[in-house]
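Onboarding guide, step 5: your first structure request.
Type a short instruction followed by the sequence, for example:

Predict the 3D structure of this protein.
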Amino acid sequence: MKVLETSFLVDYLNEQPYTIEYLEANPQSQYVVSTITLYELYAGALRSNDVETISTVTDALEWADPIAFDDDAAREAAEVRSGLLDQGEPIPAPDTLIVGVARALESELIATDKHFSRVSGIDVYNPR
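The system replies with structure tokens like these:
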């Protein structure tokens, strides 16, 4: 199982070739999208000047399973946030929550934002 993060999916929705290449190279994988990521994508669609809507995002991602932010994810996210604050290197709050989901699932996170490399206890792959 692979957790797809917002940065990767924004590029996918914007038809960046590397995203299609990555997905086509890994067709056997089960992909999930956290509800935190969905929130970010939906909010972006609503604020977009394009014709993108929540429905277009939902339709474009029908191949990925939504996964809820639950108690296990909340605990993992809290540990991540605490550790990064102790290091003086926090990451944006939504990203901390998404990492919590991936760590709770013991899954690889597919993301293009470099700050995810500062998070311990998770495999992060940047296909860009």
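Each response can be followed by summary notes, for example: The first strand starts at residue 2 and ends at 4.
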